[in-house]
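Q: Here's a chain of 414 amino acids. Please give me its 3D structure as tokens.
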Amino acid sequence: MSLTVLMNAGPWLSVPPPGYGGIENVVATLVPELRRLGVRVVLASVETSTLPVDEKISVFPDGQFHALQRPYNQVCGVSQAHLGGVVRALHARDDIDLVHDHVEAVGLATMAAMGPDAPPALHTLHWDLAKHPELYGNLDGGDRVRVNGVSASQLARAPQALRDHSVGHVHLSTPLAVDADRRPPVDQGDHVIILGRINPGKGQDLGARLARQVGFPLVLAGPVGPYHRPEDLAAAGDEARQNPDVRFFYDHVAPHVDGDLVRWVGTVAGQERDDLLASARAALFPLRWEEPGGTAVVESLALGTPVVSTARGCLPELIEHGRTGLLTTDEEELGDLVLAAGLLDPAECRREAAARFTPAMMAEQYVGLYERVRQLAARPLLPERPYRPGRTDGWWPGRRLSPAGTGKPAVRSR
């Protein structure tokens, strides 16, 4: 395949990330499979990214995740500086066939504002689409900029302008799903795990409270704000409470954490993460928001760990109730479902992951979307209109002035 894609991962974490990293893990999973299919990839990320690619564009030497939840006036320039580097690269070269953008809000706005001479762009929506109503509700990317969701339920809740620009959805994947159906079984323990960044939407406070009420051991694995280890958060002192996730942890989660029945272990990665997840009785997702993608959900299935969750967002798309997990609309029922999860067959979870959530499947679907976006962008940028007399430079309303009054359109056709 002769296709060069600029993959815009953003400035927050390296690719692959050192442990936690949602979007960066998605990019790290997708890119090797795209290159296997013959796609040439130019990665826009931070300099410390180690993912093998054909080229790399960087503005920042390392990830800026530590600044992500600072006050707006301290952090507002980070994404813009990164996007400025991307735009400069796109202006300086003509070999980029498509931009695949993953930067929330400003990535989509920048791609839409670049104008008709920019390459086609596909913006993947990884987030809660209610967050930026003025942006998403008024999007006009013309024929050149399109979006895709990471679940059907995410797009179903999107503003009409986003749905008008959508080319469909692609579920997230995990390398753990490759040959998951042939992975040997793991002895499962009694502990339950909640995997992910600790914040109100993920519901760790609810999970911790239910663990104390019902009596199951619970492991919370994920960062609190920019703090990846308990000792780092403890050393930060009261100043850390300026971060909203830290305040949430101290006010609502920490009162339940006793180091015995309920433990916070910080960010876990690699084999340690896989072992902790594979040996769990269940992966618990006590969601208080409409989860759009669910990387940790498909990772749990690939490791043979049944999922227990509130039936929100993408979860009903990913989990078959009674076979690969247990879902409920009553969050108080989650504790009882955790106890019942031991009756589910881990082999069914692994088979489901191998059948639906491999990186190769995700890459093939994205290549199909790339071609669709390029076809849509190839529509005439301006309708054919008759020449209107009174000008000698070939101009009519909606047409840009041609160079040096030649009468030839300055808008590049595709």
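Q: Can you summarize the key feature?
A: Residues 283 and 300 are 7 Å apart (CA to CA).
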